[in-house]
Amino acid sequence: MDTTLTPDAESGLRDEAKPSRRDYDALPASDPKSPVALFGTDEPLAMDSGLTLAPFQIAYQTAGTLNAERSNAVLICHALTGDQHFAHTHPVTKKPGWWETLVGPGKPIDTDRYFVICSNVIGSCMGSTGPASLDPATGRPYGLGFPLVTIRDMVRAQAMLLDRLGIRDLFLCIGGSMGGMQVLQWASLFPERVFAAMPIATGARHSAQNIAFHEVGRQAIMADPAWADGRYLEEGTRPAKGLGVARMGAHITYLSEPALHRKFGRRLQNRAAPTFSFNADFQIESYLRYQGLSFVERFDANAYLYLTRAMDYFDLAEDHGGVLAEAFRGSKTRFCVISFTSDWLFPTADSRAIVHALNAVAAPVAFVEVESDKGHDAFLLDEPALFSAARGFIDAAARARGL
Amino acid sequence: MDTTLTPDAESGLRDEAKPSRRDYDALPASDPKSPVALFGTDEPLAMDSGLTLAPFQIAYQTAGTLNAERSNAVLICHALTGDQHFAHTHPVTKKPGWWETLVGPGKPIDTDRYFVICSNVIGSCMGSTGPASLDPATGRPYGLGFPLVTIRDMVRAQAMLLDRLGIRDLFLCIGGSMGGMQVLQWASLFPERVFAAMPIATGARHSAQNIAFHEVGRQAIMADPAWADGRYLEEGTRPAKGLGVARMGAHITYLSEPALHRKFGRRLQNRAAPTFSFNADFQIESYLRYQGLSFVERFDANAYLYLTRAMDYFDLAEDHGGVLAEAFRGSKTRFCVISFTSDWLFPTADSRAIVHALNAVAAPVAFVEVESDKGHDAFLLDEPALFSAARGFIDAAARARGL
């Protein structure tokens, strides 16, 4: 996959740059509780597809204080269905921030010491511009008219946000799963801007099996007549059933067989005997149905299509002549790569491939395989071995940086 | 799960037994190319749900010749979406029989020596009575009015077929996946009728993760408006999209990550570069879409619901006080249990649990874990180690039986 912008496309971008029309005021901010950085038509986002996005906006959250040297910034990159609410109560779900286990005063990512930023990725639906946003050219939601987004596009947008915030260097770039892909892309695209990088439960490319699971989810959404070829917002419908099925299937891949066995086994739901019907007899069925239902309340179906596609397209080696090590050649970033033994979505072999590539270019890298039966989602859960590895790596990096 | 028929239900069955009304002539035979055994209202099928099925029919195929002693009969039990066309061209798909690799003249299951039978399971859609059949009480297709089917119900129906064919004992009962569940159920329910048993790529119970995958598939079907609460045959619609999505998701679980990587990797479909769209850019996407499309041409959506449910309900230990060994106590059957290293749907641990249970009751058992990267579907594919294990076991059993 060659997703490098051609010189023509780049110069095309520059030709199109016009003074901001401030029409981005019309874009929806689905999360009014987050600060939003607005980028006008004079600051377009150049995308791997060769298209540009302008105007656009990035919703983000911060915690802690930027020091005078501006040297203590941490960028957290969220996963597929994550968002910027990493360390405070979510405004929609009212649940705790998704990484409060790792981030906060005295935590491994210590908000008493670091200035922590997390922005909603481009293409998502939590306040940053995505397919549910209004297309200023038509006055209607983009839908499938939104340009395809890549992991690199997400990272470029984040870099523009950091520029806006006056942050040149990141002390640390960290994230799990799709967030980990962004971390790898950051370290490869802007090595001089990343002091330390911590990709967790991720891979330098999406495997055939992972693409396959994503494709099933997309087909489930597109099979829902309420999806209406992506124009459901205009039609006033919602592909809730299709999106729910997609989420149910994906959710299985985030867990592990041992965890499912421990948590649910073959236990029946509120019943002493099976009903000999298609009711949710088993607890696992009831749990999955709930996961599907609660997801559709908080996520946009088209955004799900776009973000799964971004992960599928990710192949850092392909962008460097098929040699992953080349993605990191000359890097001075220090890495800590983390995997979990029961993660079958991004198995340890994927992390080892990253480590081997870093070794090949003599980049400083630590690797920790955390023993856990919680599957891929372990990076979001209470995993003391993850916390201690993160604390050790981050504290050492802080000392090296004089923080 | 207690699925034992209560005495009341059993006597109720007997009360309901009436002379055959021959109204089964009205039932559809979706496969007119197979012989069909008809069972009238005087021969009802007693089901685990407590309900009875009458009249009903079983479509089957045979190969080879029954010897004078009637001692050389082999019953092949097919998998979830399999059928009775095990060793001859399929009348619908025109593909070779699904087990021609293993069955035929000179093959491990040698049709020059054995009389081989394979019947379409009750609840399926290839000629045996299932939810797509006409309910004689209403004159309309059963749909969800068809009683829930269990693995034990399938085996009971097969036993009635063997009775009809004048076959008391099976020399061998063999099958993979759901077919392996039937083999285990045969050996447990009718131990005196099974001389040798070969359960392949299966388990004595369906795991939480497997139930979860099945539930996603069912929800995909039920989410399709064309499913029409199961009445699509009456409505003249077909839930092709929902069934296609279900099949796509299930198909992933039949393969393995290494096999998908070897077969497809991240190769693009007929294109030099990604299209930056939701087209099937990757070969794996195109392959999966084809799997979904071709499946809906040959399979009934409600039958898929019923058969997945039958697998979910299967838990042989639960039927014996939670102790799997009790399912086989006193058995004189000789077993050969086969698993495949890359099968993550029914991993080797599931087969080991069967072997341990058989060991606990001192049943003769051989166990072979076949090294293969082909995943669950390996039992259907060209696996020389499977063939040699099967040949060795079957030849030895034949000698022991004096065949």
UniProtKB/TrEMBL annotation, chains A, B:
Top-level taxon in the UniProt lineage: Bacteria
Alphabetical keyword list: Acyltransferase, Amino-acid biosynthesis, Cytoplasm, Methionine biosynthesis, Transferase
Domain AB hydrolase-1: 72-381
Primary location recorded for the protein, binned into one broad class: cytoplasm
SUPFAM superfamilies: alpha/beta-Hydrolases
EC assignment: 2.3.1.31
A Gene Ontology term for the protein's cellular component: cytoplasm
Positions of the catalytic residues: S177, D343, H376
GO biological process: homoserine metabolic process; methionine biosynthetic process
Residues annotated to bind substrate: R247, D377
UniProt feature, compositional bias: Basic and acidic residues: 11-25
Enzyme type, top EC level: transferase
Localization in the cell: Cytoplasm
Subunit structure: Homodimer.
Purpose: Transfers an acetyl group from acetyl-CoA to L-homoserine, forming acetyl-L-homoserine.
Annotated protein name in UniProt: Homoserine O-acetyltransferase
Species this chain originates from: Methylobacterium gnaphalii
